[in-house]
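Researcher: For the record, we're logging two predictions in this thread. I'll number them. Prediction 1 follows.
Model: Prediction 1, sequence and structure:
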Amino acid sequence: MARESSMKRKRAVSNFFGYVALIIITIIWLFPFVGLVLGSFRSYDAAVEYGGIVDYVIPKHFSLDNYRFVLGGETNYLRWYGNTVIIAFFVALFQMIIILCVSYALSRMRFAGRTALMRFWFVLGMFPGFLTMICLYFLLKEMGLTQAGAIKGLILVSVASSGMGYYVCKGYFDTIPKALDEAARIDGASRARVFFEMILPISKPIIIYAALVAFMAPWNDYIFASYIAFGHDASYNVAVSMYRWMNTGDYQGYFTRFCAGGVLVAIPVTLLFMFLQKYYVEGVTGGAVKG
């Protein structure tokens, strides 16, 4: 009994310090987000002196002036927001379709060069994408897909390399018994019919995973978007336009507007993950079973 009681005390002490550590980490992790939200409700007043970070972040008087400025006619924020939505939506749609088709083909079909192709894509994926920025810029420029045509150019570039992101989806399809395909093929179904009518209906988690991953990349893209749309205000996405706000020379004034814009950008992604988190986790864990 004494030994059991001692083990319980040790376990309780260990759990206590573990929870304390987790609480501290959570506070540190959430502080920037809380500061962003609170800062979005504070209007900049040049006559007010702020004594420290607490006075600067936490508004003494809550106001919606920043949101009125962002959503009003003084800026093109709604245009930039719409550009971001258009790019992210079409990239997610086309990239999801391509990834699912490529992953299914690599999972089910055996053809000459299949293994070499997968290894080549795997190695190629280790190189950062910005290494090709100069080449892509001149290529897109020749096609008229920079500046005024930057939205189409960004969609094209993001979709063009979709097939290399097959890893997780292929692993998920590997977990689905091939007997389903073989039974349908014996009954005369084509591979396309097997894929669209049998495999996809039972692959909801991996479909949502592929769509979310594809949606997030262009939604948060700054480097390539600023490079392709450089100098053309109407083609900016939210990330590029908000960074420009911070370089206007009025850092303090535009910081709170930057916070308001950041909150509006975070809302769709937060809602997507809240409602689709279950399927996202199932897709990741299911695709990690086999490579």
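Researcher: Logged. Prediction 2.
Model: Prediction 2, sequence and structure:
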Amino acid sequence: MKKTVSFYSLGCKINAYDTEVLREIFENNGYEVVPFSEKADVYIINTCTVTHFGDKKSRQIIRRARRNNPDALIVVTGCYAQVSPEKLEEIEEIDLILGVKAQANIIELINNYQNLPRKMVLNFNRNEEFINYNVDNNQDHTRAYVKVQDGCQQFCTYCIVPYARGPIRSRTIKDAVNEVTALAQNGYKEIVLTGVHLASYEKKSKHSLEELVEAVSQVKGIERIRLSSLEPTIITEEFLKALAQIPSFCPHFHLSLQSGSNSVLKRMNRHYSTKIYKNKVDLIRKHFPNAGITTDIIVGFPGETDKEFEETKEFIQKIGFSKIHIFPYSPREGTPAAIFNNQVDSQVKNQRIKELNDIEKELRMKFYKKNLESKEKVLYERGVGDNKYLGYTRNYIPVITYSNESLTNQHKDVKLKKIQDDRIVAEIL
């Protein structure tokens, strides 16, 4: 009888990718993967530590796994394990704690865990080279994430990621193309190239990010290529000209902002000003006039005044984002900002989030309306009801189409007709 394993991934797409890698390792070693809610022999929790909420959620999931099967082996890895192993040692439900680098030996460690001291593995040396794995299948049957970069050396004052993920390192074009080829052969049509700090890809690679995109675009069967979150620093005339020559590149740029106030950006140790950011957006729209431009905003960073918050509100309206992800600032132990003076009251944060949410919806609806009656290509991802299918345009507008035939993983020419429930209803041409 096969041993069973179950996975739970918290946090970002990088963690989700790493979990897919672990899933394939276990499957290749004879394990059967079962849902996390079921009884399993082994539970793997890939933790997040970006905020203290991530830590709390990780602890909840660990305890849930033990309740699912009191006799199971509970293995905890990921960023929380990397940054705070001593805190996890206090949780009696855990059998093994693995640093990110130790994931490569996870099967061997599990097979021999009874012989390990205190049943703990604290292998937390920082990775200096990109650890290359291939994921041939992905839980999503249309879009696949391919990790091509890891690590960060920006050291923003609010962020724990450089301490969790280590120095920057990049994957070779050849290795990335090999993984994309396998995914294409398994039916995937859209690839998202992702990394912890994707803009630094070239610093540890002999090639530029645009060269990587061009190489991936040559893989037969891949109809779309997206880039995950980018720093404004990577946006140049040459970069955008190169991307504009690649037919499968999707004009959606998730360009990190975090604040629209220069004084807050300085305290955050972000490496640009609002003027630089605006210039980068103007460049994008020069080459991709109808690009979707999305971003992240942190609300209530230490010392954020009413004036600074107003500057952020004015700036995001000036840019005209197509979508904004809004987060309250959360102090993260071990980062400089956690001990900054003038921490913002939670009630103030909540009120500011409400104000930004209203602006965000207004900007998103404006972008949707601008696109109505246009002809677009949509890749449908899944059914979301009877004869109802969800997909995305190239500039990342969510689209609903009604069809008596399955549209899953179909690439269709459509016309965008009307806004319905934060999506656009489209008709196939």
